[in-house]
Design brief:
This protein is α+β, with helices and mostly antiparallel strands. It has a single domain, classed as RutC-like (60s Ribosomal Protein L30, Chain: A, 2-Layer Sandwich). Helix content is 32%, strand content 25%. The protein contains four helices and six strands, in the order αβαββαβαββ. Helix 3 packs parallel to helix 4.
Amino acid sequence: MKALIFTLTIIVLTTSCRNSDNYEKADYIETEEFSKLNFPFSQAVQYGNIIYVSGQVGDLEETGELVKGGIIPETNQAMKNIQKVLEQNGSSMDKVIKCTCMLDDISEWGLMSAEYIKFFPNHKPARSAFATRGLALGARVEIECMAYVK
């Protein structure tokens, strides 16, 4: 009897999982300007009530060039880029739950952190940071975030 109930449970679960209505659909987000750049990734992806913002460097939207001055202005601009994507899609910096920071030089972690934290006056999201080499555009930092929407 237990085997029959177990088998029926598996059949019901398998059948319900095959019904595509039970799954959220991902929304791949790109502004018209971003789309024209033909990057091999989306600006962000929303799945359910979570938005995943692709890694942002400290580039200016108008020119696509990095801001001058190193890690502090680059961190500031990367965070502004994240903030813009979030706000355009029904979220905000207050709704960020996790960030990942990639630094060209880990010795700049303290400088990056001091600028980064200014964008989170109400709470500090979970965060990971690590050093790497060869960020896009020769950037000092790249930051990606996850946030909830609504």
